Amino acid sequence: DLTAPELIEHADIAMYQAKGSRVGSYQVFDPAMKTAAADRIALRSDLDRAVELKEFTIAYQPIIELRSGRLTGAEALLRWKHPERGHVSPAEFIPIAEESGLIIELGSWVLRSACAQAAAWRKEFRRRVEVSVNVSSSQLRDAAGFVTAVRGALAESALPPDSLELELTESMIIHAGQDTLAALSGLRALGVRIALDDFGTGYSSLGYLSQLPVDCLKIDRSFVSGLERDAGSRGIAQAVLTMAQSLKMRTVGEGVETVEQQNFLRQAGCAEAQGFLYSKPVPAEDVSALLARGLALGSSGSRRQRNAG
Hints:
Layout: H1 4-19, H2 31-53, E1 56-65, E2 71-82, E3 86-88, H3 90-100, H4 102-125, E4 130-134, H5 137-141, H6 143-157, E5 164-169, H7 170-174, H8 178-190, E6 193-199, H9 206-209, E7 216-219, H10 221-224, H11 231-246, E8 250-253, H12 259-267, E9 272-273, H13 284-293, H14 301-308
Parallel strand pairs: 2-4, 4-5, 5-6, 6-7, 7-8, 8-9
Antiparallel strand pairs: 1-2, 1-9, 2-3
Helix pairs in contact: 2-3, 3-4, 4-6, 6-8
């Protein structure tokens, strides 16, 4: 038989699980929940230590222009190699960092590091290489502080504002308050680009989208992965691209893995793409190597890259 404190503990764990599920749902306690909760607490403690010991790194996934195969930029992605667990998935640690508030410090570090790296590429290769940085909802809660952080990162690195793109999810920007939208508009006026990530998974209307301070739509990988077999995915992708073109927004297809997906996007008018067809997320020096070689990436460029390596 369980004691009263144990019953309360189990109820709390089940309640926590329910809060993380869809609205109005409930959860029945399962012993596996307790194990998962304990693991989450341990990971939270390890996150604090990881920040102090600088265990985090940044990987960059190249973004290419579909028309030419030319590398135009890279998305900066936070990575964590735990001394015992090995590589921890961002899907595991990012939500915990959000809840704990550590994402503010981590996000600021990624922003400064990515701007410095883009400035280094610009200086070394004498060309503009845009860097995309993901922004969390926690960072946006303090709109004024976020603007200060962006301006500081640009000033510190001497990176031109138009070489920085800030990625926000569709749900974040749709539910943003007026202060946040004003801050984003101010950054956009400065020259910083604003991208709507995972586009197509939310509920943006054409009328509302036209009022948002957005320069780029990134088509969600869930639609890109279905382009070869699913007429619905092709229809949604085409509709998004047509809408973006009417609003004069740049478009990027995410998660491109096959030549067929690439060709559909290119023929449908998508400007850029990223995905394993071109490159997985890699260290900054690997992106430098691609820039130095000057190879076009894509259906034929990928083969040239493999043969050259």
